[in-house]
Design a protein that fits this description.
The complex is a heterodimer of chains A (220) and B (237).
Chain A lengths: L1 H19 L15 H28 L2 H33 L7 H22 L3 H25 L22 H34 L9
Helix pairs in contact in A: 1-6, 2-3, 2-5, 2-6, 3-4, 3-6, 4-5
Chain B lengths: L14 H19 L1 H21 L9 H20 L2 H9 L2 H7 L2 H31 L6 H27 L4 H29 L7 H25 L2
Helix pairs in contact in B: 1-6, 2-3, 2-6, 3-6, 3-8, 4-7, 6-7, 6-9, 7-8, 7-9, 8-9
The chains are: A mainly alpha (220), B mainly alpha (237).
């Protein structure tokens, strides 16, 4: 409860700071650079949840622990949500700065593939009637999908050069303004906290739904 | 019964011999029904005819040809493969022979046997479609060796990436649509690589260490190893 309240206050502080405390970065039309504080953490959470889902899937396959499957499913659902959010916000930014909503920039390509993987994951889950088998298949597919990710890192940047702003927007580069960096890191923390909180809620829902899951005999 | 017909084999069959037995059995069944071959080849030929008829060999500017032709060729190959490769496992489910197969061979051997079968189908597909495509579209290729290596390694990749998915969807409902939906995200990195490789082979802008072929071979290796690990989980009841 305390944590939840702290998270909401922190989130509010970050939103206010993102608009009032920091200055808009040079070289971007108007105030568009402020997307950094929202879009990047969303993309980060989308990627993080993909990783969490894969690890939970592997755990499920090793231990056959229901909780691990709930974690894998919840992380996938949240990952999908944040993936959509990152795609939409990024698209709006792309329209404002590069002139069109969609350019097949390498990161746009990889996020589309991520969306497709999540879509396929849910399609698979809904198509297998037997609950035990459904969990195993979903876990296997999650691991399979994760294995192809390294190839995207090698393959996708070869097609076109990225339009993504790197230097002034990347915290590992020296070009970032210290104020921006502070708020950006704060926002990453806020989004990660939000993710953990939503993840726990979703897992509780799944556990309660699992209690009334049909028994073995219902499938014959 | 020593030396008799019903001698039980214990410990004498290897993974490879079991896999080859399953492969040959699938080939024999396929020769009798020709279901998968017909489905895949007819799909591929129809698409090829549609592409060739609507675009022809003069519509696309010569400078654009290497890239656009690579894209068209791989779209034909990938989607033809997706239209029929799931048969390898779906037919077992439909014939009710899944359990017999589970009892008679080890899971990894089943996977390898089905993979060999799918690779045979893909080989037949490429053998027919690629030369026809080159002839119909007047596809000029500077480095035929590199091009052939890209087609072959890409074909192996298609098989390695989809065989385990076929095993999963055979046990699910809504099989046909699900197979494409599940396989496509896994195949996309391979498809992008193969398109790039074929484009470079056609332009002749240097084979540069055969980078695309290496990526495709790495893809095949990784997908095979991961599938071999995961397949028993999917296969066993």
């Amino acid at each position: 409860m305390i944590l939840k309240a702290m998270l909401s206050i922190w989130m509010a502080v970050i939103i206010v700071a993102a608009f009032l405390y920091t200055e808009a970065a040079v070289g971007f039309p108007g105030e568009t650079s402020r997307i950094l504080f929202f879009h990047v953490p969303q993309a980060w959470v989308a990627t993080l949840s993909f990783l969490v889902s894969m690890i939970a899937s592997a755990t499920y396959l090793a231990k056959r622990n229901l909780k691990a499957d709930y974690l894998a499913q919840s992380a996938a659902e949240l990952g999908f949500l944040f993936c959509v959010l990152a795609t939409v916000t990024g698209s709006i930014f792309a329209k404002a700065t590069w002139g069109s909503f969609w350019n097949w920039d390498p990161r746009e390509t990889s996020i589309v593939i991520l969306l497709m993987i999540y879509g396929a994951y849910f399609a698979l889950r809904s198509a297998v009637p037997d609950p035990e088998r459904k969990r195993v298949f979903a876990a296997v597919y999650s691991i399979l999908a994760f294995t192809t990710v390294p190839f995207l890192i090698f393959v996708v940047p070869r097609i076109t050069a990225s339009l993504h702003p790197e230097n002034t927007m990347n915290p590992t580069q020296p070009g970032m303004d210290p104020k921006t960096l502070k708020v950006f890191l704060g926002s990453l923390l806020a989004y990660t906290g939000l993710f953990v909180w939503m993840l726990r809620l979703k897992m509780r829902i799944l556990r309660l739904e699992g209690l009334k899951e049909p028994r073995f005999g219902d499938f014959i | 019964m020593k030396g008799g017909r019903w001698t039980t084999q214990t410990g004498s069959s290897t993974y490879l011999s079991e896999a080859i037995a399953i492969w040959l059995r699938d080939l024999r069944i396929e020769f009798r029904t020709r279901y998968a071959v017909n489905a895949i080849l007819m799909f591929a030929v129809t698409t090829l005819v549609a592409v060739s008829f609507s675009i022809g060999s003069f519509r696309i500017e010569a400078s654009e040809k290497p890239f656009l032709y690579a894209v068209l060729l791989w779209i034909i190959l990938v989607f033809s493969a997706l239209s029929g490769l799931s048969r390898s496992f779906v037919k077992e489910e439909e014939a009710g022979t899944m359990d017999a197969l589970r009892l008679s061979a080890r899971p990894q051997a089943v996977f390898l046997g089905k993979l060999f079968f799918n690779l045979t189908l893909l080989g037949a597909l490429e053998l027919i479609i690629v030369p026809s495509f080159i002839l119909l579209m007047k596809y000029e290729i500077e480095y035929p060796g590199f091009f052939a290596a890209m087609i072959i390694s890409g074909g192996f990749g298609l098989g390695a990436g989809t065989t385990i998915v076929a095993a999963m969807i055979a046990q699910a409902s809504a099989r046909g649509a699900l197979f494409s939906a599940l396989s496509f995200p896994l195949l996309l990195p391979l498809m992008i690589t193969a398109i790039k490789g074929c484009e470079r082979a056609a332009i002749g802008m240097g084979t540069a260490g055969w980078a695309e072929v290496k990526i495709a071979v790495a893809y095949v290796m990784i997908m095979m190893v991961v599938s071999l690990f995961l397949f028993p989980l999917v296969w066993e009841e």
